[in-house]
């Protein structure tokens, strides 16, 4: 199947130019799906399967049929995308109308207008795996050259997604650390107020805050913040 080498090279280069500070993991996933749809020969619709902690989902897709067929796999825990993701391999459904694997999934794909499907395992990080699912409207839509190109595309995409996942995780951790520091600061302020009012030690002040938190079923930080705010108003 003929394809445009220049277009393929441009797509791979675009994967390498993704600026993580300007998007998030979902944004990178959407970019990968869109590039695959435009670049890979025979691709009518594209989706990405992600498996995290045993749960599968499709966070990015270029068409509703691809999404619907992915979700059928998840509901029955059987399908080419799940197999490719679990085993980090390439699964090729050459003719959906003639394939009897996965509890009737190929027949459902044929009824939905997809004659063939190619799913390439997408390793991301240790606890997250995935697959790039490429749907073709015709049977035998993906020849050896198309499969090789898809596998090359996935290797580049895997790097971009692993970096995005790390960036996303790091940003989330940084946010949690910032929140923790702010909570600690307001709790220390509240302890200081109680120590000044009751002439008690820091441990005794913290015990008072903890008791109020438990008695009122409120977070310790919220109790401390309310005390600090009330004192500032007064």
Return the CATH class of the largest domain.
Alpha Beta
Number of domains: 2
- Give the name of the CATH superfamily of the largest domain: GAF domain
The rounded distance between the terminal residues' Cα atoms is 77 Å
**What is the 3D form?**
elongated
CATH-scheme architecture of the largest domain: 2-Layer Sandwich
Q: Radius of gyration, Cα only, in angstroms?
A: 26 Å
H and E string: HHEEHHEHEEHHH
Give a quick account of the main beta sheet: strands, pairing sense, barrel closure. 5 strands, antiparallel
Strand order of the largest sheet: 2-1-5-4-3
Structural class call reads alpha+beta
Low-confidence stretches: 1-6, 19-23, 170-174
- The name CATH uses for the topology of the largest domain is Beta-Lactamase
- Overall helicity: 55-70%
The amount of beta strand, in percent, is: 5-15%
Give me the count of strands: 5
Summed up, the helix count is: 8
- Round the mean pLDDT to the nearest integer and report it: 82
């Amino acid at each position: 199947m003929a394809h445009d080498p220049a277009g393929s090279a441009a797509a791979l280069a675009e994967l390498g130019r993704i600026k993580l500070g300007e998007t998030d993991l979902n944004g990178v996933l959407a970019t990968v799906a869109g590039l695959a749809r435009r670049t890979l020969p025979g691709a009518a619709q594209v989706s990405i399967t992600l498996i995290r902690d045993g749960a599968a989902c499709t966070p990015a897709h270029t068409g509703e049929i691809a999404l619907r067929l992915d979700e059928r796999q998840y509901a029955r825990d059987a399908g080419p995308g799940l197999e490719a993701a679990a085993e980090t391999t390439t699964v090729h459904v050459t003719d959906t109308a003639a394939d009897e694997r996965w509890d009737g999934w190929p027949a459902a794909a044929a009824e939905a207008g997809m004659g063939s499907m190619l799913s390439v395992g997408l390793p991301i990080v240790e606890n997250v795996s995935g697959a790039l699912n490429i749907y073709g409207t015709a049977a035998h839509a993906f020849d050896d050259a198309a499969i090789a190109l898809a596998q090359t595309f996935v290797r580049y995409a895997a790097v971009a997604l692993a970096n995005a996942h790390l960036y996303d995780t790091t940003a989330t951790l940084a946010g949690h650390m910032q929140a923790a520091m702010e909570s600690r600061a307001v709790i220390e302020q509240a302890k200081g107020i109680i120590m000044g009012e009751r002439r008690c030690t820091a441990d005794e002040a913290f015990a008072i805050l903890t008791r109020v938190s438990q008695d009122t079923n409120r977070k310790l930080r919220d109790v401390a913040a309310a005390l600090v705010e009330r004192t500032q108003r007064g």
